[in-house]
Predict the structure.
Amino acid sequence: MSKELKMMNCLFKSSLENKLPIDLIYMNNAGELSQRSVIVRKITVEGILAFDIGKQQLRTFKRVNILSAAKQRRKRGISYA
């Protein structure tokens, strides 16, 4: 297993255990790319079952179509007192 796949698996497990969102770059079967913010609900050999925050529904993502996975970056902003 490559280093990238191990890191992706760790991100999936972290999202599942801590219920934290991660960002995915995903290619559908038609070859169209999309960026998704998801919270992983189940990990399988074929892929993941995750709650898609943008679409507000559970979705299945095939591992072979997940091009990238990363922790969500915190948005920096100005906080006022």
